[in-house]
Amino acid sequence: MAAIPTYHYPQQGKLVILGAGESGVGTAILAKQKGFDVWVSDAGAIAPRYKQHLEDAGIPYEEGKHSEAQILDAALVVKSPGIPRTVPIIRQLISKGIPVIGEIEFAAQYTDAKLICITGSNGKSTTTMLTWYILSQGGLNVGLAGNIGRSFALQVANEQYDCYVLEISSFMLDDMEYFRADVAVLLNITPDHLDRYEHKLENYVDSKFRIIRNQQPGDLFIYCADDPITTEGLKKHHPVAMALPFSLTDKLQPGAYLNDQEEIVINVPYQDTFTMDIHELSLQGKHNVYNNMASGLVAKAQELRNASMKESMGSFRNIPHRLEFVACIAGVNYINDSKATNVNAVWYALESLPPKIVLIMGGVDKGNDYEMLRDLVRTKVRAIVCIGKDNSRIYDALEEDTQIMVNSANMRDAVEIASHLAQKGDTVLLSPACASFDWFKNFEDRGDQFKEAVMNL
Fold first, then answer.
1. Any known ligand binding at 123?
2. Is 338 annotated as contributing to ligand binding?
3. Most CB atoms within 10 A, among 220, 322, 351, 418?
4. Is 80 annotated as ligand-binding?
5. At CA 420, angle to CA 336 and CA 364, rounded to 5?
6. Which of 279, 334, 274, 320 lies closest to 134, judged by CA?
7. Where is the Mur ligase C-terminal domain (predicted)?
8. 125 annotated as belonging to a binding site for a ligand
9. Which domains, from first to last, does the chain contain?
10. Would you say 402 is a known binding-site residue?
């Protein structure tokens, strides 16, 4: 087991939690267990099931507001990653010297489990799930948490795992100071969430590289050597952990690469070499070769047997809303990729599918640059059906690259239009490139509405 880092935070007194979602409620239960005087505040309405958890645990809360005097009376504040550090109440807390951290930082100080932490602009949910699946199938006692699954803090309070696989977003990394990843995985960096980073890519890159903060020489840093922004970032951010890069073009040892026989080759010091034909992977497409390399490096470093790894990498099924097959109707395949909330994720989806695609995209634009999609749209996309309130930037960027581009009134309308435009052998792909909260509650709601509309055709 790894040594627990020293966390210089109050270990008693009033702890205020901002946000009563999965992470906030889990934090509240763990904090009460550790002897804090806990109080929860949510500016919106608290979901009934979370309210019930708080009431069952005897934890006081408020909803629909943030009571400033109560919050500023805290010894320690744990906030939802969705709350920027720039909002006035957070600035006031920081100016008063009150520590403001996130769930992952808070919970990590109460476990000595190995922490395998995965970040990246694209593919982190798939890679996190795949890594957890490979490790659990290989016999490890492993938990799944972070930006996916159940609250990390709640699992630390109630479970006894030997290791955790954590999906870590840049927003979570921003709230970490003393946290240390035993294994840090950085899949890629593409422009995303730049509105949160003063529209400066370098700020976002700095945030992603916080994944290696506090690592020691005995830890591992796994990264994509083919990703130009990552390799450029390594000129500024110098990992002290053992580096295990992966690549489709360079034969890396130690690390992972693709050989001339189209086999993944994984070499980790003191372990036997792992090889697997990419056509035997359950997840197909170039981006999924990268995801399997990253997960395979983690697994091999945990000394899993090659036969177990190969079976798991061949049997894994992807998470909902990420290139999820929905149905084949009248010879047309319908694919739900609602989790593709940025342009790079859409590029990966288009790259992994055969030509003749009817693409459903649009929503809340986060400053997207659609230019990188033009070649794939030109060669693979038959038509684009737009969803969301304002898709003028999609029209400006891609209208000349596809024969048909139309607006829709809602998801049912979009699916019906797409079904009429598609021909036998085509794929209707929901891959929005945008956030969902203009028409939908979240990307899950968007994907669920797509699936419902498909099944009602």
1. yes
2. no
3. 418
4. no
5. 45
6. 274
7. 321-434
8. yes
9. 14-101 (3.40.50.720), 106-315 (3.40.1190.10), 324-455 (3.90.190.20)
10. no
